[in-house]
């Protein structure tokens, strides 16, 4: 059995005390690699130091999170550009649009999103998209920049079947995490049932959004098999098969 956690913020403070154990436990749960989406300029240093500490397991991304887009976004992107040349970078992420809490910088979020998609296109890297309360505009932007080579994932997928089909048409993946285990999310589970596994990858979004029965606790990469078990039950296939196909998808997308 093998899995890849395609989205985990294990470089954050909440893992500082026991990161060795977290990585070890991930290995015991057959999670062989953990991809780390960046948030802002200051977190980028910790993403890189975590990669240097666990170079085979923890792989870095470069990106400015939409919730970190403020009046200094252009300057922040300039600072993040310094990391783009590193060979270890597996994706541009996480980038996108989040209008859930605050719409103040909505237009700036769009500009920063487009700017970073163009990085990905120049460097031939995939993009990891964070979209909250903004799925239509996010899809529209990706569609307008899709030149046939752009690849990526809509992380933490929690949308309708109609949106899932649009994402598949774009040639993009959807990231499945703890939210598929939440009681209220019947619609997401029916999307998982309808759409072939070839469009899905697995993720935790650790330390956030832990699967049932760990809600309210810190999420971590060793919970990936719980998500895989839900997918295997929904699709009525073995958990090995879920691991195999989702790992192949992640390897292809991120060139691992
Ligand atoms: Zn994230």
Produce the secondary structure layout.
Layout: E1 3-5, H1 19-28, E2 31-36, H2 41-53, E3 58-62, H3 73-81, E4 91-98, H4 106-123, E5 127-132, H5 135-145, E6 152-154, H6 161-169, E7 173-176, H7 186-194, E8 200-202, H8 224-235, H9 239-254
Parallel strand pairs: 1-2, 2-3, 3-4, 4-5, 5-6, 6-7, 7-8
Helix pairs in contact: 4-5, 8-9
The structure holds zinc ion (ZN).
* Class from secondary-structure proportions: alpha/beta
Round the mean pLDDT to the nearest integer and report it. 97
Measured between the Cα atoms of the first and last residue, the distance is 17 Å
Count of individual helical segments = 9
Low-confidence stretches: none
Strand order of the largest sheet: 1-2-3-4-5-6-7-8
Which band does the percent of strand residues land in? 5-15%
Major β-sheet annotation: 8 strands, parallel
Second CATH tier, the architecture: Alpha-Beta Barrel
Query: Portion of residues in helices?
Result: 40-55%
């Amino acid at each position: 059995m093998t899995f890849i956690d395609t989205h985990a913020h294990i470089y954050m403070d909440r893992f500082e005390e026991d990161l060795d154990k977290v990585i070890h436990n991930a290995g015991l749960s057959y999670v062989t690699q953990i991809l780390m989406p960046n948030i802002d300029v200051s977190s980028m240093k910790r993403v890189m130091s975590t990669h240097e500490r666990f170079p085979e397991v923890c792989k870095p991304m470069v990106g400015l999170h939409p919730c970190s887009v403020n009046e200094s976004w252009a300057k922040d992107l300039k600072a993040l550009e310094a990391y783009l040349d590193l060979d270890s970078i597996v994706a541009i992420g996480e980038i996108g649009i989040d209008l859930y809490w605050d719409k103040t910088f909505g237009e700036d979020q769009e500009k920063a999103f487009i700017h970073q998609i163009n990085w990905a296109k120049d460097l031939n890297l995939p993009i990891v998209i964070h979209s909250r309360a903004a799925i239509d505009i996010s899809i529209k932007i990706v569609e307008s920049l899709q030149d046939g080579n752009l690849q990526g994932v809509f992380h933490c997928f929690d949308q309708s079947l109609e949106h899932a089909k649009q994402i598949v048409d774009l040639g993009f993946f959807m990231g499945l995490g703890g939210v598929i285990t939440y009681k209220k999310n019947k619609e997401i589970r029916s999307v998982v049932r309808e759409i072939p596994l070839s469009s899905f990858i697995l993720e935790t979004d650790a330390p956030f959004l832990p699967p049932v029965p760990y809600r309210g606790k810190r999420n971590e990469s060793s919970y990936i098999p719980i998500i895989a078990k839900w997918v295997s039950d929904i699709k009525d296939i073995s958990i090995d098969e879920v691991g195999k196909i989702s790992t192949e998808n992640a390897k292809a997308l991120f060139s691992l």
